[in-house]
Amino acid sequence: MLSPGSDVQLRKSRASGVSSASVREHNALSVIAILREHGPASRADLVRRSGLTRPTVDAIVESLLADAVVAHTGNQTVPPGAKGRPGQLLGFNAGRNTAVVCRSRRDRLEIRLTDALGYTLAEVAAPIDHTPEAFFREAAEHISHLVSTVPGAGPVAAASVLIPGLINRRTGASISHPPWGWADVPVQAALSKHLQIPVTVLNHASAAVVGEVAHGAGYGHEDVLMVLLDFGVGVGVLTGGALLRGADGAVGELGHSRVERPGRLCVCGRSGCLETVASGRFIQEEAVRIGGESSAGRTLAELSALSDRRVDLMLAGAADRLGLAVSGLVNVLNPSIVILGGTEFAAGAERFFDSFRRSVQENSLPANAANLEFALAGKDSEWSGATHAALEHMPARLRPRQSFGI
Ligand SMILES: [Zn+2]
């Protein structure tokens, strides 16, 4: 929001040669931000909150009404006995454009249609073929069908897709995802061609860190290490408020760091990876080995609730190994918070989280661990982050104010 001294800032901007068009747009974005964050307001409210003059606000509002970015939402209620006519209320028109958010799971594709505030308008989940050509065709068909189920929804302006495995963030290609047989699959290019809109491709851990910082435990932090614990182990990193990309964008594959030699065979084709001793896959396999088939498919919280000493020991060992690996990243990246979880498998796993936190604290350098915060995430981090990623590519006036450079 602009401070009451905005007009002073505006004059300074003119003096420093910033174009009047960019000042106008800056002021328009400030008015939009007020409506996004505080809900409907009258023109008088906008003048008061923005610090802009009434003629400036009037001009901005007319432009935003013409662009359908704001709309009239009704009249202010006037207290009994008050004089004067009620002011017309203006609201952010979140339905002007929509976004599509896709999350690929092991055997299915989940798709949400959201408005420009990220609220879900409709969703669908469908089995999907992992052959690249079939995947793109079927995804486009599911998206078209979903959009058609919401009559009156604004045109889809942007999409994001969560894909497991290594992603090239520069090209939006899947570098490698062995379980699907994917190698150098041009996800972004193919889906952009099918959908005719900007498509952002992210892995689950990168989306999770964005989600936690935008709306969750990482809110207000700029240096965040998110450990996404699911079947595998991924890491999402925010440094200085921006998503860490790396040279090719292939950031975050902590699960395939070798911690044992020779070690067990890993899904990546190598052996001794962290995932072979501290992932959801390892934990669930060990739980079945200890407790039989009745333990299959349980979450971390459910396994803890069994109060089986052998299961507890196995979980404590996995949490310690995961904490040890993460402590190395803490020493390198110096985050202000480490967030664990972000998946249905890890949600509510308080005891596992306590063991993990202890291990990170004990194994990190004291200087890095001294002020380090920890949080256990809920299960929706990656959805929230993927939605934010799509919204960052909406038309400029519809984008969220906070950008992670996705
Ligand atoms: Zn591996």
From TrEMBL:
Coiled coil: none annotated. Transmembrane segments: none annotated. Belongs to the ROK (NagC/XylR) family. This is ROK family protein.
